[in-house]
Amino acid sequence: MIAVAAGPNRIDPYVIPALDGVAYGLLVFVAAAGLVFCFGVANILNLAHGMLYAIGGYTAAAVLDGSWASLALALGVGVLAAAAAGVLLAGLLTPVATGNHLTQALLTFGVALAGGSLLVAGFGPDDPQVLVPAALDGSVQVAGHRYAAYRLVFIVVATALAAGLYLTVRRTRAGMLVRAAVDDPEMVACLGVSPTRIRVGVLAAGGALAGAAGVLGAPIIGPGADTADTVLLLSLVVVVLGGLGSMVGTLLAALAIGEIQTLGVALLPSAAPFLLFAAMAAVLAVRARGLALRWAAT
Amino acid sequence: MSLTTPARSRALAAGLLALVLTASTACAADEPGTTGGGSIKIGLLASLSGTYQSVGKEIRDGFELYLDTHDGKLGGRQVDLVVADEGNGAATAVPAATKLLKQDRVAALTGIVGGGSVAGVYPLLQETKVPLVGSNGRPEIKDVSRVWHTSYLSDEPGAAIAQHVRDNVKGSVYAIGPDYQGGWDELRGFTEAFAKAGGTLANPDGKTTFTPFPATTNFTPYFARIKASGAQAVYTFYAGSAAVDFVKQYAQSEIKDIPLYAAGFLTEGGVLNAQGEAARDIFSVLNYSPDLDNAENRGFVAAWKAKHDGSPTTYALASYDAAAVLDRAIGAAGDDPTPEAINAQIGKLGQIASPRGAWQFSTVTHSPVQKWYLRQVRQDGRALSNTVVGDLATIGR
Q1: What is the pLDDT of residues A49-61, one digit of tens each?
Q2: Which residues of chain B does A219 touch, with a Cβ-Cβ cutoff of 8 Å?
Q3: How open is the CA angle B90-B92-B93, to the nearest 5 degrees?
């Protein structure tokens, strides 16, 4: 009897961290998707990706006033602003050959540093307040525990976003053109589609995704001076863990990061400082060859 | 690339070097600190850029407020305030301090946000024999003969509130904080005094839980452990972005009804705005609150609000008091306020009237012997604010 009773009690403290790992993982997925999309599909390494997320976050802080209308407005403005920044990046990257990762990294990282300073100069050094609608601000009962309502709703919204993204890349003409442009840019050009337009489109779409993640994720990874670095680091870990081959890989990697950062920390708090990077090192040790093949192929 | 520099650029370099040398000898001809006409040069070093810029700006503004409300004079002398940017730490603070101490030849140095920066600047103070009246960070220092702080020691807030927590919480208390020097000191101050008062920690191993800093942005797994520990209260210290994340997530977590006690920095200044409603009812301990009822504080808060949005913080107060300390010490130093004379006079000040209530320098640590207050985040007009709800211990060694 005692053993049976002890079962649920042993699991019980880890229910909320496990659930939170899903919410956090999905946020990491939405935040990283734009970077993986640009890098994996269009072969553009954009280290200013974290800054694009921060643009969305600061937009949310500036526009949100606790009403649903402001949430919709913030989403619209944040997506447009980050997409516009993506187009600007595409313009700066025009002279750089596709696949020249070092030059791309240097250029976009420089833009990220400058853009980050501009954001802090414009919005101030303090973390701004993010006011979500009152209905989402509280907490709800989940399996006998209290859990943040916003994060619960976020799980649903992010899942929908992920599904939409998958269908866009796999099933729409735009998605097919982008994939085709990577495999055979000359053939796509012969079809009458300019590769430059595709590059601009991909960076704009990556920016829009980052902007959406920044707005929706603002109550979880809020805007602040360190936000851009945090998001860029997590996104790069997603690339290492999940590779660039498939969106499913990206999703699994993001969820793994979410669970490592929550459930892993709850189970092994003393290992918290290096859990994430230990997982990354382990994956690299086992899968490095697979990643290398993929990189060589693109 | 060739190893020899072209002749033209070498000539240019020589010319520049000559210029720099003339400039520095010209400076060296000046009497240290004084610029003639009964004025005095003071150096203020604070983080005006980087991670700690909100604290750095409060420190600059606090000092300038004292000057503005005292005709720009300290000790009867017109002040030539030289402000330099400390940046993120010792790497940027040391060159800035070198300029203030060796080129500007200030009579006294004040400010400095980071404890690491103070440690970096310390050898320069010994070399130039200029006193530092620091207004924030305070590392372990062996010889404090030229180092004074108007702020506090990092383990004092926790030590001051421990007895109150022991008396008011029926059960064990969970201690959690960030994993770096400041966090260790703050939490050690609490846990040592709490154990002495007979309290028990709820942490499974009886030791404080330290979270990776600054990597931790999600505290949910820690909250689950606190819930499982059966703690009746939580004591913590976080500052900056981590404080915002901790408080916002706490308010939506399953431990939201467990009373939260903290070192005052958790809800101090700009972070309280970002936390909003989530910070309501949090208890914290600090050496200052803008609603303290004394004449000095009413004047200080009114003058501050005339120039800035919001209320002054403990950071601004400490810098304001650093100016007050220098005011009296320079005044007492007589006709020739050399750095040595100012330093000697600071040691003889005795009680210092302040918006936080009267305090004095400890003869051992050269940091304040001062009263600590229990504050709670409550509604104040339209905004939430830290409200004093009681006096705690007077601490200082």
Answers
A1: 999 999 999 999 9
A2: 248
A3: 60
